[in-house]
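Re: beginner question about structure tokens

> Can someone show what the tokenized structure looks like for a real chain? I only ever see the sequence side.

Sure, here's an example I had lying around. Input first:
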Amino acid sequence: MKAQLLDHALPHHDAYSLVAEDSYLASLLALHSAWKGFWQAWLREYFRGNKLPRQAEQGLLQALHGPETQIPETQRAHWQALQLNYHEILHQLQSDSARTSKDFPCPALVPTIDAALALEQQCFEEIVAYSKNLGEIDMLTGLPNRRRMEQDLIREQALVERKTTSFIAMIDVDHFKSLNDTHGHAAGDAVLRTIAQGLRLALRHYDGLYRYGGEEFLAILPGLSEESALLTAERLCRHVAATPLQTVDGHPLHVTVSIGITPLLPGGAPHERMAMADTALYQAKQGGRNQARFVS
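And the corresponding structure tokens:
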């Protein structure tokens, strides 16, 4: 029987809390649906001259407050803003419900209707914006994916044209196929998640780190000299090699990475520099793995 790698917990951070991220989108969709149902019911009963029963609010309030503990940290401000706006509208609707359509003519209801429609649009725009962001996240590791990487490389190249410095590092997990064959793909996935976590924590917060594909990652390292860029790559190798991993049955695993690093150059193209980083990575592999190589 193949041993399975213990799946390390991911850090409590939105870039990695993918279960929370998925539930946030689900919460937004549920809130949008609950609001539409509540608002349509309120309008129907109001123009019939009826007050909407208070229990009709319960579904909306549940959608508004039920998910609070599951909202990711960086999305909490957005959610709290939605909560505040919804409660303001609910308060206004309660006030308007105290008056019938006979003594409160329709034009006087326009500000409330406008606010309600704006609130529905705000929730919808949050769904769209969040969905777009989620589409740029690798679901296995929680890192930005290749689509985001390509966008950021274009931005970084533009900065290099203005005489800043930036380096790209191709990072490849050593002997990954052998690890998968020996311990199974679930173990391989756990290794990738753990390495992604370790690399992200080892880099500066403004460095870029991306899942390039398979067992490969790419890092963007702005503002460094050639020497400090190579030292950073070597430090990442040591960090991964020192990360303790073991199978469920306690068998230790020693996982390493090889890194190829190269600068972005004025007048160059990011895809050409990535080819150079690949060349440096090949040299690191040929040199014995668990090391970094620099190619200018």
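Each token stands for a local structural state, so reading them left to right follows the chain. Strands lie at 166-173, 208-213, 216-222, 245-246, 252-253, 257-263, 292-294.
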